[in-house]
Amino acid sequence: MQRRTLFTVLLFALAITAPAAEAPKPLRALLITGGCCHEYAKQKDILKNGIEARAHVVVEQIHTDDKSTKPPLAIYGNADYAKGYDVVIHDECSADISDPKVIAAVLAPHRQGIPGVNLHCAMHSYRVGNANTKATNGTERSAWFDYLGIQSSSHGPQEPIAISVEDKENPISKGIVDWTTGREELYNNVQVLPTAKALARGKQTVKQRDGTMKDVESVVVWLNQYGQTRVFNTTIGHNSATVSDARYLDLVTRGLLWSCGKLSQDYLKPAETK
């Protein structure tokens, strides 16, 4: 009995002194925020802290407090703005930045293979011409839509959105259950490009002018293959309550890791560290 006890103590001692698996070198993510209509000063830190708590990722920021639809972001005119980063998170609202040369520079890193994560109003940025009419893929007017995988032109009122996971076996959405947000904006789908793959849809009940209620539905989470570049997108994330929701941060973090080809237990941190 004493030998067995001593053996058990030795095993326990070895277990607690064994070196933990070495953490991988953190990914470097560039988060871009600023522009119209959102609490970016608050949300940029919610995103940074939430992602870093969930994965081996260091989030660095480019931000402007300017609240116009043409925010003077430092990336404009610099095609090398993402040099040294593993992924770029676009969370800016630049609805009236429509110069094709500026847009080409914003897209340059992604055309060269740097993954992209696009949140909410990034989908309504960098649009050339009338976004309500379908742009022809491969044209100057479609440049940003080709990168995103979906063309969107407008959103509905701020009402709860019922999110339904469409692909429950995808490694990004696996384990993420359907949920209903608080007050959010449902973005429309003018067109879904063949390169896009829907992960989740959103349904919102909207009051019509005649007083009747109507269910409106759109793709709200999707992936896109932009040449050799992986791109993760979600139109959810207008209000800070949604951005700080653990389910939202889990989804964005897993999407980011997927875009980099690093969605694995090596890069995900234990749940208790969130």
List keywords for this structure.
Rossmann fold; 6 helices; 274 residues; disordered N terminus; 30% strand; nine-stranded mixed β-sheet; alpha/beta; two-stranded antiparallel sheet; globular
Q: What is the correct CATH architecture of the domain at 24-154 and 191-199 and 219-268?
A: 3-Layer(aba) Sandwich
Distance between the termini: 43 Å
**Overall body shape:** globular
- Give me the count of strands: 11
Cα radius of gyration in angstroms: 21 Å
- Put simply, the count of helices is 6
Instruction: Please write the string of helix (H) and strand (E) elements.
Output: HEHEEHEHEEEEEEEHH
Contiguous uncertain segments of 5+ residues: 1-19
For the largest beta-sheet, the strand count, sense and barrel status come to: 9 strands, mixed
β-sheet strand percentage: 25-35%
Q: Which fold name corresponds to the CATH topology of the domain at 24-154 and 191-199 and 219-268?
A: Rossmann fold
CATH superfamily of the domain at 24-154 and 191-199 and 219-268: Class I glutamine amidotransferase (GATase) domain
Strand order of the largest sheet: 2-1-3-4-11-10-9-6-7
**Residues in helices, as a percent range:** 10-25%
Q: Would you tell me the structural class of the helices and strands?
A: alpha/beta
CATH level-1 class of the domain at 24-154 and 191-199 and 219-268:
Alpha Beta
What is the mean pLDDT? 92
